[in-house]
Design a protein that fits this description.
Elements lengths: L20 H14 L4 H23 L5 H17 L9 H4 L4 H5 L3 H7 L6 H9 L3 E3 L2 E2 L15 E3 L12 H9 L2 H21 L1
Antiparallel strand pairs: 1-2, 1-3
Helix pairs in contact: 2-3, 6-7
């Protein structure tokens, strides 16, 4: 029996004008600043933001005492505060319309790992996450785009099985090799090989 493929909903929307200089420059800047892989990752966040703004606009058109606005609005605001995108002192639908793409990119696991000092660069943070070195609370997460909740922000650390984690075997050796550049490592190995040859010649 043939396998039925799973059909998922849309996760991003391509821009209407493909060659808009201002937008292209902005996207390129975001990719470099937040260590994103491609434009699709930017479009995915933009799509989520557009859906949230649309919901907020629809709720604002309703009457203030409308139950849909009361319950739907409070649920939306609570969700945004929990993720850390919206500050608690700005829990109003008007402030939701002012949200930017950077607010969401700041909450990505990749950005949080770099800001906590667990990685040397934003790109190194992505490598650590993909290689299963990072956990959030007790759960290992290997998705750089994972949205970190506000209460989980300080509970990001190396996994217990990672050699980079506290007390892991060979932690100091691994850290030493990471912080040492690739060229320096090669030179060091050559120097060690040369010393070994000289020692054997003397014998």
């Amino acid at each position: 029996m043939s396998r039925v493929p799973k059909v998922f909903g849309k996760t991003y929307a391509t821009p209407r004008r493909p060659f808009e200089k201002e937008r292209l420059d902005q996207e390129l800047k975001l990719i470099g600043e937040y260590g994103l892989r491609n434009k699709r990752e930017v479009w995915r966040v933009k799509y989520v933001l557009a859906k949230i703004r649309k919901s907020a606009r629809e709720l604002l058109t309703l009457d203030e005492k409308d139950p849909r606005r009361l319950f739907g609005g409070s649920a939306l605001l609570r969700r945004l505060v929990r993720v850390g995108v919206l500050p608690e002192d700005k829990m109003k639908l008007d402030f939701v319309l002012g949200l930017k793409i950077e607010d969401f990119l700041e909450r990505r696991l990749q950005t949080q790992v770099f800001k906590l000092g667990l990685a040397m660069s934003i790109h190194h943070a992505r490598v650590l996450i993909r290689q299963r070195h990072i956990r959030v609370r007790t759960q290992m997460v290997n998705c750089p785009g994972f949205m970190v909740r506000l209460d989980s922000g300080k509970l990001i650390d190396f996994t217990l099985s990672s050699p980079l984690g506290k007390g892991g075997p060979g932690k100091m050796l691994v850290l030493f090799y990471i912080f040492l550049g690739r060229v320096k490592r090669r030179k060091m190995r050559k120097a060690e090989a040369g010393d070994a040859e000289n020692a054997s010649d003397e014998e």
